[in-house]
Specification:
Elements (H helix, E strand, L loop, with lengths): L4 E5 L19 H10 L3 E4 L4 H4 L10 E2 L8 E5 L19 H12 L5 E4 L10 H8 L3 E5 L9 E3 L20 E6 L6 H11 L5 E4 L11 E3 L5 H8 L2 E5 L4 H6 L5 H7 L3 E5 L5 H4 L5 E2 L2 H13 L2 H14 L5 H12 L17
Parallel strand pairs: 1-2, 1-4, 2-3, 4-5, 5-6, 6-7, 8-9, 8-11, 9-10, 11-12, 12-13
C-alpha cells in the first residue's frame, strides 16, 4: 500500500534557523516530522524552505519540498493568522508570504483532502471569518497543544520531545546565572511584571528574547534574541527559569517547549501557581505565587546537595512523559486517518484532567 502523503505547511525552520525569528517550533517540529517519516508517511513541505533561503543551511530529515499544489492525501497546517506589519500587506518591507500561501492551500485542497489544523498559538478562533469558512468545506480536524482544550471539537497534541532527551542526566556544574528567562514578550506582560521584574529586585535576572516595550531596570538585563543552539547552552548555565505564558495558554494548560528545553539543560522550571495543569506536569516544589516566591525557590535550589538536586531533576523529567513524541504522533495520525480526533484522548493523562 502506498504511503500517505502529508502536505505540511509551516512558517519556520527545521534546523537552527536565524536569530531574528519568533519560531519556537524549531525544537519540536523536526521531532514530529522525523516521527511521521518513521511511521511510513511521506512529508512534503509546502511553504518556503527557509532553512535553505534564509539560514543558508540544508536540513534533511527525509522530507521533500513542493511548490504549487502537489498530490497529497492530507493537508497539515501549523495555523497562521494575520500579523499586522508582517504578513498582511505585500507592499510592506519584510513582508512574509506565509498567510497568503496558507490561504491558497486551504482553498485548493478544501474540497479534495482532509485538513488537519495544529492550532499551536490558539489563534484559529480569532482568525478572519473567511479563513475559517474555507475550512468548513473540508473534513477538518483541529489539534491543540493544551491539557484542557479550548473547545470540545478539538484533540490534544502536545509539543513533542524524544524520550531519550529526558533520560540523560544533566550536569549540575557551576551555574553562574541565578534566574533566566528565554522567550519573547507576546502577551506576557502581566506575568512578566509579577514574576520576573519583581524577582529582579532581589537577584540578578537575565532575559533573552524580543522585549521591545521594556527598559532595563536594576537587576534585570535584556540580551535580545539568541540562536536556537544557544538555548540549552544557557539553560546549562542557569539555576532556574519561570514558565511564562499568555493568559489563554495558562487557562488551558498549554505549555511551550521551554518546559522540556530547560529540564534537558538541568535548569529547574518554576511555574506561576495559577497556571492550569501545572500540578500535573511539575512537582509541588516548582510552584510560586510571587516574584519573592521565585527568589525563595532559587535560593533553595542553590542550597541543595547534588543528590537532592538530581532527584528534583529526575522527578521533573518523569512528569514530562505526556510530551513523549509517540503521544503526539498518535493524535496526528488519528486526525490524518479521519478518526474524529475530538473524541479521542491520545495522551496518557487519564483521570488527571
Amino acid at each position: 500500500m502506498m504511503s500517505k502523503r502529508i502536505g505540511y505547511s509551516c512558517w519556520g525552520f527545521l534546523g537552527n534557523g536565524i536569530v531574528d525569528t519568533p519560531d519556537g517550533g524549531r525544537s519540536h517540529r523536526p521531532t514530529l516530522i522525523r516521527g511521521l517519516i518513521r511511521r511510513g508517511y511521506k512529508v512534503i513541505m509546502l511553504q518556503l524552505d527557509r532553512d535553505r533561503f534564509e539560514a543558508r543551511e540544508t536540513v534533511d530529515l527525509g522530507q521533500t519540498y513542493g511548490s504549487g499544489f502537489p498530490d497529497i492525501d492530507v493537508l497539515f497546517l501549523e495555523w497562521r493568522w494575520p500579523i499586522p506589519g508582517r504578513n498582511d500587506n505585500p507592499a510592506i518591507p519584510g513582508y512574509t508570504p506565509d498567510l497568503a500561501r496558507q490561504r491558497e492551500l486551504v482553498r485548493y485542497y478544501a474540497s479534495r483532502v482532509p485538513i488537519v489544523v495544529w492550532d499551536k498559538d490558539q489563534q484559529l478562533a480569532h482568525s478572519p471569518v473567511d479563513d475559517r469558512l474555507a475550512l468548513v468545506k473540508a473534513n477538518t480536524y483541529v489539534l491543540e497543544p493544551s491539557l484542557y482544550l479550548s473547545a470540545p471539537d478539538r484533540a490534544r497534541a502536545l509539543f513533542p520531545v524524544e524520550p531519550g532527551n529526558l533520560c540523560v542526566p544533566p550536569e549540575r556544574g557551576r551555574r553562574t546565572i541565578e534566574l533566566i528567562y528565554i522567550g519573547n514578550q507576546y502577551d506576557r506582560d502581566r506575568v512578566y511584571d509579577q514574576y520576573i521584574v519583581s524577582a529582579a529586585k532581589y537577584i540578578p535576572v537575565h532575559v533573552y528574547g524580543k522585549w521591545p516595550r521594556y527598559a532595563t531596570v536594576p537587576g534585570l538585563t535584556h540580551h535580545g534574541r539568541i540562536g536556537l543552539s544557544r538555548v540549552v547552552e544557557l539553560y546549562q548555565q542557569s539555576v532556574a527559569t519561570v514558565l511564562l505564558a499568555p493568559d489563554r495558554y495558562m487557562k488551558t494548560g498549554q505549555f511551550t517547549q521551554r518546559i522540556f528545553e530547560s529540564v534537558i539543560g538541568g535548569c529547574i522550571p518554576l511555574v506561576p501557581a495559577d497556571y492550569r495543569g501545572s500540578d500535573i506536569l511539575l512537582p509541588p516544589f516548582a510552584h510560586a505565587n510571587t516574584g519573592c516566591g521565585v527568589v525563595k525557590r532559587v535560593r533553595e535550589i542553590q542550597a541543595m546537595s547534588f543528590e537532592e538536586w538530581q532527584e528534583l531533576v529526575h522527578e521533573q523529567m518523569s512528569l514530562l512523559e505526556p510530551f513523549h513524541v509517540d503521544h503526539t504522533l498518535d493524535a496526528v495520525e488519528s486526525a490524518i486517518n479521519c478518526q474524529t480526533p475530538q473524541f479521542k484522548d491520545m495522551s496518557p493523562l487519564g483521570d488527571k484532567i
